[in-house]
Amino acid sequence: MADNPMLKFVALGQQYPEKRAADERRADFGEISRAYQIATAEEQASRCSQCGVPYCSTHCPLHNHIPDWLRLTAEGRLREAYELSNATSTMPEICGRICPQDRLCEGNCVIEFSGHGAVTIGSVEKFITDTAWEQGWVEPIAPLADRGQSIGVIGAGPAGLTAAQLMRERGYEVHVYDRYDRAGGLLTYGIPGFKLEKHVVMRRVQRLQDAGITFHFGFEVGRDATLDMLRARHDALLISTGVYKPRAIKAPGVGLGGIIDALDYLTASNRKSFGDAVPAFDDGSLDAAGKNVVVVGGGDTAMDCVRTAIRQGAKSVKCLYRRDKANMPGSQREVKNAEEEGVEFVWLAAPEAFDGKENVSGVRVAKMRLGAPDASGRRAPEPDPGSEFRIEADLVIKALGFDAEDLPRLFDSTDLSVTRWGTLRVDHKSMQTSLDGVFAAGDIVRGASLVVWAIRDGRDVAERMHAYLKAKVHEKVAA
Q1: Could you confirm whether domain 150-243+404-478 is CATH 3.40.50.11240?
Q2: How far apart are CA 470 and CA 4, in angstroms?
Q3: Which DSSP category does 141 fall into?
Q4: Which residues are in the FAD/NAD(P)-binding domain (predicted)?
Q5: DSSP 147-177
Q6: Where in the chain are the domains?
Q7: What is the CATH number of domain 250-402?
Q8: Are the beta carbons of 400 and 246 closer than 8 angstroms?
Q9: Up-side HSE of residue 117: CA atoms within 13 Å toward CB?
Q10: Local confidence band at 1 (pLDDT 50, 70, 90 cut-offs)
Q11: pLDDT in tens, 203-257
């Protein structure tokens, strides 16, 4: 009997792909980690303990077959590993790069619990699919026979692109409408290149275009067509716009120049990476070069902002977060990367007011302390009286998260029902909104969340739309 290629975690230590030195990576927007070599990827995959109940898969929103493709990788069967990974995810190499594995699969790895260090699942996932692209194993989408029905997808983020792909594979005509000039949503314009280089997203989009999916860029529902007009044009619609309304800070001086929203800042930076003309960047408004930068927030968007500011040549970069390090929502890995690159974190701190005449010159900060747990179980921050101090700032970036835009108004569709949070109200069995044949998925339903959950929702809504459209055909035949 051949030796078992797995369960090597006792003798073989955890090894992530080598990170470029902080000084080197501060100088560009390239991804910070080097790629695994084949031998290292196989070795790291062989550390998997092949659990009977794989918590890694259970805690993955896509329920990826992680132990199975780790074993195939360890055995050198990379093409089979890719095909199995691809069976449950439309974007495995993207999830491998940007998922917070420390909170999902790797954070729930059994050998992590035993003190041996989790299997490096995300890095292996990225390696498998990057290899598949390099070797030509990523085959063109081959749609089934034309069904004679069309769908419209509003929003070209991960949920919309996933549903578009899966519906096209089933033989539907698919049109994707997006307000931007490129597909990808936050994958393209929100997440910086040092976490996700843009060619990785663009090759996915090109594959969809090659499959016959029609993209309508620069298209705003409500301006270029009402929702009712799109309903008349298609047999079913999917709304997957995401949530883009930035949460506000209520404090004196918040209207000063130099106080900007995170998404405006990140979009400008990503557009420059594409070579676009960005006047607000070129005039210095959205450029951190030479400035004292303060980022307010503790999520992954805040981490994207502080690390972008470092690369733009900021004089100093500070991150204010009202809770402590243990209670921040962002990835601890991202915090470590930011600290290595020179970001200063000011924990238990919240802005009280902003100084300046026309442009911001400083932030008055209140020290916080953690009080009793709030409704979510987290200890609520409260001001610590008499502890105020001031931080110099030429640029303040608000990264407090996002809420839903007022879609019934924007889409000129008052019958579109929303929750008290502004997200779309859906029937969770059918994933339909209050309008027949209009489905919704992703952040516009669940609120700001992870890319992997958007992909999961896109996968689920494709199944529901397919069932709905088949039923419409049967009803027409029966009539």
Answers
A1: no
A2: 47
A3: P
A4: 151-458
A5: -S-EEEEE--SHHHHHHHHHHHHTT-EEEEE
A6: 22-135, 150-243+404-478, 250-402
A7: 3.50.50.60
A8: yes
A9: 13
A10: very low
A11: 999 999 999 999 999 999 999 999 999 999 999 999 999 999 999 999 999 999 9
